[in-house]
Amino acid sequence: MRQEEFEERYSEQWKNFETQINLVEAIKLNKSKGENKLTDFADNYRHLCYCLALARERHYSPLLINRLEALAFRGHQSFYQKRLGIFQNIFHFILHGFPRAVREQARFFWTATGLFYLPLIVVFLLTLVFPDLIYMIVDPQMVSTMESMYDPAAERFGTERSSDSDFYMFGHYIKNNIGIAFQTFAGGILLTLGSQFFLLFNGFLFGAIAGHIHNIGYNETFFSFVIGHGAFELTGIVISGAAGLMLGWAVLSPGVYTRKQALVNAGRAAIQLVYGAIFLLLIAAFVEAFWSSTRMVSAETKYWVGSAFWLIVVCYFTFLGRPRSVKKSGSKYGS
Amino acid sequence: MLDTTREIEVPEGVELSLAVAGLVSRSLAFMIDLMVRWAVLAAVASIIGYLGTFGGGLFLIIVFVVEWFYPVLFEVFNHGQTIGKKSMGIMVINDDGTPIDWSSSIVRNLLRFADFLPAFFGFGVLSMLINKDFKRLGDLAAGTLVVHKRKLNQPELKFEEEGIAPKIPLTLAEQSAIISFAERSSLMSESRANELASYLRPWVDQDQTKPNVDNTALSIKRLAKWLRGHQ
């Protein structure tokens, strides 16, 4: 068949298909209703691919092939797009997906936990024994800022912060803490080194500061402040570190896959943990800005509530997202 | 072929060839995006300045969102194109040619931080130069690809003469070569065009009537016009 005849015979169909693609792209953008005009989209698409293959096989002009290929690419993009229903899935993810994902990656979670809490504890104890250690780890100016922040005698602590500045701190915590979590995650692709660095570094820092605060006796203001949001914040950082370790480990030890494919697989699994870490850190920022800093409740209440937060976090990761009991699912397929 | 195209086979059994975007166009797109982001933040800051401390907190949240999620939102909702990518005519897609989804976009954009290390996108540039698809680390982990968006409006062939049909059927590669020669011949001198075309003289000018006039280039352009006419 000559090219003119070929085009004459099919160009009407190609035009129709193009209008259908335009319609799909419009629906994706503003949800205007036009689904009823999309009957036979799949058939049309398959037919277009058939035409493209024919045109290539028969060496028709490059321009025609180019045009058909462009149309096929748009059809491909319209037809095979993934469902974007992330907002519907958020609820399900928080209740089931996230704790399950963390348990599935228990190896990385516990490694990250160790990388953060071990140096924290060691440096905390060392600082108790050698108080000057703090100045080797933390900048002296930062130390004095810390001291004035948690000074129980400070005038500022007597007065209640306005809700305006609470909100300012909320924004500050979101920008800083989630930013740190993202960096901890991203650094992991460098053979896990970046994640390790951020976990260790923050462990050292926190341990040294906690030790120093204990040395100078500001325990109550500091620990009652930290315990509440710490449950969410520290867990969030550890989990984003675990996600980063997954990336680097996929490159180091790809198993049966190629390194490239292992990395893509790890990325897909790791991003689940990052979503969860964002969720935890948003809670942390909220608690830190509006609860931890409030002076209206006593330190004792904060210890109780803070401990409850820790318990909730532990239970959340231990119990949620478990499959229903075997008995139930068994009866489903039973008689 | 020595070319930066990447073939993607789709389930319908045909291959789509996509032109992978290189370092320069991607860097330029990034710079444009950077400026857009700064402009947006400056505009937001000047408005929000009236809201006092509360506005300060709001501003920090907006900075956070713009810093990390500006590309994500554009890529997911704007057919894989941020403003910079759109102005450079490039788009980001999944490795299998499907539109980029939330997870892939978030992975590739969070990992921009690792690409930036140790300074000025050192690892990212290194990775792009080593990789045959110009992927930075974020693209590797997310399984994404940045490609040139196909342009359909090709330059007109401006000359008077009628097209002539080739005497023998030509393969696709041969047709492409002839058409792109015709398109590019306006960018070179006439003698250079004829020099290049002279390799084909025996084939084109079989019935050369005026042996002293070298019009092989013109003959090829006329062939191209005929081939183009059949689109």
Quick structural gist:
By secondary structure, chain A is mainly α. Helices cover 81% and strands 0% of the residues of chain A.
Task: Describe the secondary-structure layout.
The complex is a heterodimer of chains A (335) and B (231).
Chain A: H1 3-30, H2 41-57, H3 62-79, H4 86-104, H5 106-129, H6 133-137, H7 140-149, H8 155-158, H9 163-186, H10 193-216, H11 219-252, H12 259-292, H13 299-319, H14 326-333
Helix pairs in contact in A: 1-2, 1-3, 2-3, 4-12, 4-13, 5-10, 5-11, 9-10, 9-11, 9-12, 10-11, 11-12, 11-13
Chain B: E1 5-9, E2 15-19, H1 23-48, H2 52-77, H3 83-88, E3 90-94, H4 102-110, H5 112-116, H6 122-130, H7 137-142, E4 144-148, H8 172-184, H9 190-197, H10 201-204, H11 216-229
Antiparallel strand pairs in B: 1-2, 3-4
Helix pairs in contact in B: 1-2, 2-4, 8-11, 9-11
Please tag this protein with its features:
heterodimer; A: 335 residues; mainly alpha; 2 domains; 14 helices; B: 231 residues; two-stranded antiparallel sheet; 55% helix; 9% strand
